[in-house]
Specification:
By secondary structure, the protein is of the alpha/beta class. The chain contains eight helices and six strands, in the order ααβαβαβαααβββα. The chain has a single domain, classed as 3-Layer(aba) Sandwich (Rossmann fold), CATH 3.40.50. The protein has a six-stranded mixed β-sheet, with helices on both faces. Helix 2 (36-47) crosses helix 3 (62-72).
């Protein structure tokens, strides 16, 4: 049964989403044909000054988007989700890339210890329920970290396939305007920017990991396989959940 407080929360959430959809529609009219730096600059400097953040896994392609944001404003908050299950190489890359680009506000966010003790005391929830594991270790911490922001920059791209095939550069999701400046970029273009900008690669790329997440849910990818084939092998799961509508509530 819905209590009065629950109903009020629902009304507030629905109201925020409606306003967000209106704002996103206006932005699409003004900037819908732009991408990359051309889209990021007005979002950061004009539309959402001080109210926009970038979430980054510091994965294999992360440097390109981080470099673009750094070219606009080195102080844009960068939210890094430390699940406690990441490769040591990812932590090393975080330090290397942050220093290389001169990022000044990288925020490392971790899961709530009480939630872990309650739902994953042995640290092996990923074996029986990988969706719940991701929700506790990624979705909930990110929801908390984004509380003070109106817009959220992501590095998702259509060529990654599956649920990302129909992505748009500007979206309205769960009360946030989501900016996807690389949505139409190809793998070839991403690699070209790595070369042109002299960006350091994630150490695991050379070992056959074109996409990197938590170590127990990531494997090397063989030649000819899809770039994300090494994520959640033998599971129907293809996304961690942070980009799913109603992600904060687990719906």
């Amino acid at each position: 049964m819905n209590t009065s407080a629950n109903i009020q929360d629902m009304v507030k959430t629905e109201g925020r989403q409606r306003l967000c959809e209106e704002r996103a529609a206006e932005l699409v009219c003004a900037y819908g044909g732009l991408d990359g730096l051309d889209l990021l600059a007005p979002m950061i400097e004009k539309e959402f000054p001080g109210r926009i953040a970038l979430s980054s896994s510091f994965g294999t392609e992360a440097a390109v988007l981080l470099d673009l944001v750094a070219q606009v404003d080195l102080a844009v908050p960068v939210i890094f989700l430390d699940t406690g299950k990441l490769f040591e190489e990812t932590y090393n890359y975080l330090a290397l890339l942050s220093d290389h680009l001169g990022l000044t506000d990288v925020r490392t966010i971790s899961p709530d210890p009480a939630r872990l003790q309650e739902s994953d005391p042995n640290g092996n929830l990923w074996e029986s329920d990988p969706d719940d594991c991701c929700h506790i270790r990624k979705v909930e911490p990110l929801a908390h970290a984004l509380t003070d922001f109106d817009a959220w920059i992501t590095g998702r791209k259509q060529y990654h396939g599956d649920l990302r095939l129909n992505l748009e550069p500007i979206e309205a999701v769960d009360g946030f305007v989501k900016i996807n400046p690389l949505v139409n970029w190809s793998h070839k273009k991403i690699q070209a920017v790595f070369s042109e900008r002299k960006l350091p690669q994630h150490p695991l790329v050379a070992r056959g990991y074109p996409s990197v997440g938590c170590y127990h849910c990531t494997r090397e990818v063989a030649e000819g396989e899809d770039l994300r084939a090494g994520r959640w092998e033998e599971e129907e799961k293809t996304e961690c959940g942070i980009h799913r509508a109603s992600w904060a509530s687990g719906q």
